[in-house]
Amino acid sequence: METRVVDHPLVAHKLTTLREETTDSPTFRRLADELVTLLAYEATRSVRVEPVAITTPVAPTTGIRLSSPKPLVVPILRAGLGMLDGMMRLMPTAEVGFLGMVRDEATLEATTYAERLPADLSGRQVYVLDPMLATGGTLAAAIRFLVDRGADDITCIVLLAAPEGCANLSAGLEGVDVPVTVVTAAMDERLNEHGYIVPGLGDAGDRLYGVA
Ligand code: URA
Hints:
CATH topology: Rossmann fold
CATH class: Alpha Beta
Number of helices: 6
Number of domains: 1
Bound molecules: uracil
Low-confidence stretches: none
Largest sheet: 9 strands, mixed
Number of strands: 13
Strand content: 25-35%
């Protein structure tokens, strides 16, 4: 698993306001949206393309377009939905699938409670959206689900990551034989005893949508 922290002053600037406890939900949503677009630029660096012949008003030439099968963007419900528009703005021809994950509080296992995905993801590059890579359990289960469906290249876009989450995710993906990349705006210090990222930004879902 490769982890990429996007080092850019605009990313750090937007993230700073996003973290502030006084930032209200409308501002939080707008900043998260803008931040995802910046992260998506880095995350799609290896998106698959194919040559295409075009004619400009002056001359024929060759360019590129996204190749088939189209990339699939998968927000993890609920908080990942707040990242979808920012991603689709950059890659409007991608397709979108949905994955709902829930953690069983007894076993601590993350399982899928809802999915709307193509039946066969063979040969697909998949972009998973989830704002917080905290313990890593949800993301590991989501990636395994997508790989079982045939996804052959997975990039996760997260706003913030914790070192413990990255280590757990890497361990949770043992035996998974497809490239997995995590792109994040920052690697924070640690997780606290409640599983929150420190310093973090609090509960991303609540801050996006204003209700628990
Ligand atoms: N989920 C969140 O929304 N925030 C955290 O800090 C950790 C997990």
